[in-house]
């Protein structure tokens, strides 16, 4: 349940007022099992003011509500809040995926000594979702830098400038959420389908249509016309805003 102060934090700022729309609905189908309204007793986020940090637990840690902190520094950073909500539904930073060494190199010499553990190589299930340079869960190329140098270097140099985009969730972010929460399985009966018909990383929406990634077309995303996002990540040039985030602790909290 949100107090009046918590409601003001969530709804009183332009950047945060639309977050539920971004993370709770994709074509009308829910992606996030948290509630943001009074009177709800199930799993939900309890929006709290924090003096210094924006932070969230990674995934659901309580069946009766868990703290989600927003500071004045980030409450108007719409993309950063989307990134933070990614943690809440169970996402880890993209650069910590188990297959990350095929796509990026972590330059540990450029990383602050106090937060060198911020780049673990996780063995968590990637759910067969392709690695995505355009993920909103990627940190900026100079995140946690100790000298202004690059800490996350892409093996494909054409993607170096797009890391840390905060424009919107990528297609693969949405696919991961749908896969983690078995959304397609829940839609098969409604759509009178025996199996998921979407191919090439497409996913079903509530209208029983396949949502296809960039570079694919066709009813079932079965025609590949170009590489996914082809190095542009929504044609967005990311800002230089790249705070040195604090270290997630043993309670699985992550900071923006």
UniProtKB/TrEMBL annotation:
Cofactor requirements of the protein: Zn(2+)
Any one GO biological process: proteolysis
Gene3D superfamilies attached to this UniProt entry: Collagenase (Catalytic Domain)
EC code(s) of this entry: 3.4.24.-
UniProt domain Peptidase M12A: residue ranges: 1-184
Cofactor note as given: Binds 1 zinc ion per subunit.
GO MF: metal ion binding; metalloendopeptidase activity
Short name of any one Pfam family annotated for the protein: Astacin
Keyword annotations of the record: Hydrolase, Metal-binding, Metalloprotease, Protease, Zinc
Enzyme class: hydrolase
Protein name, as recorded: Metalloendopeptidase
């Amino acid at each position: 349940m949100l107090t009046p102060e918590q409601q003001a934090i969530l709804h009183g700022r332009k950047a945060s007022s639309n977050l539920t729309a971004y993370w709770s609905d994709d074509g009308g189908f829910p992606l996030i099992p948290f509630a943001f309204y009074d009177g709800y007793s199930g799993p939900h986020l309890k929006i709290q003011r924090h003096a210094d940090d924006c932070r969230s637990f990674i995934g659901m840690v309580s069946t009766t509500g868990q703290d989600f902190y927003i500071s004045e520094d980030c409450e108007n950073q719409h993309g950063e809040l989307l990134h933070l909500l990614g943690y809440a539904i169970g996402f880890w930073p993209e650069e910590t995926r188990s297959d990350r060494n095929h796509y990026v190199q972590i330059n540990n010499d450029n990383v602050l000594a106090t937060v060198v553990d911020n780049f673990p190589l996780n063995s968590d299930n990637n759910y067969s979702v392709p690695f995505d340079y355009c993920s909103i869960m990627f940190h900026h190329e100079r995140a946690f830098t100790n000298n202004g140098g690059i800490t996350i270097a892409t093996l494909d140099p054409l993607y170096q400038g797009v890391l840390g985009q905060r424009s919107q969730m990528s297609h693969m972010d949405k696919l991961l959420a749908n896969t983690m929460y078995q959304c397609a399985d829940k839609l098969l009966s409604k759509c009178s389908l025996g199996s998921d018909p979407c191919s090439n990383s497409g996913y079903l929406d509530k209208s029983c249509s396949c949502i296809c990634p960039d570079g694919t077309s066709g009813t079932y995303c079965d025609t590949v016309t170009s590489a996914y996002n082809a190095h542009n990540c929504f044609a967005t040039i990311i800002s230089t805003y790249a705070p040195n985030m604090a270290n997630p602790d043993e309670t699985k909290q992550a900071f923006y």
